[in-house]
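Narrative of activities, Objective 1.

The group set out to show that a structural description can be obtained from nothing but a protein's sequence at a throughput compatible with the screening campaign. Below is one input-output pair from the validation batch, recorded exactly as produced.
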Amino acid sequence: QVQLDESGGGLVQAGGSLRLSCAASGRPFSRYAMGWFRQAPGKEREFVATISRSGSTDYADCVKDRFTISRDNAKNTVNLQMNSLKPEDTAVYYCAAKRTISYAEASRRPAEFGSWGQGTQVTVSS
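Output recorded for this entry:
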C-alpha cells in the first residue's frame, strides 16, 4: 500500500484554474497507476482522470480538454491541472493508486484502486 496526501484545493470563480497535487509515500510509486476521482455531496464517487505507469492518460468526457493529469515518478507525485473550472466541478477530489504490473493500462473503476488520499475540497462559484 502507498500513502497518499492531496493538496491544492480551494475556492475559485468559474473559469478559473487550480492545480491539485498528490504526494505518495510508503511503496514504490512507479509501480502504481494513478487516478483522480471526485465526489459531490449526495453523489457517487466518479472518475476524473487516470495516468498509467507509462504515462498514458484517460479522462472523463466532462473534463477532457480542461484538465490535465501528470506524474513525476522521481518526486513521487501526481498532479491534476484544472482549467476553465465550472460550478459542476465542485466536489471533494481524491487521489488514488492502483498497483499493477501493466505499464500502459489504467482503470476508471474506483474499486480497483487500493490506496486513497483523504481528499481535498474544490469549490467553484458562479
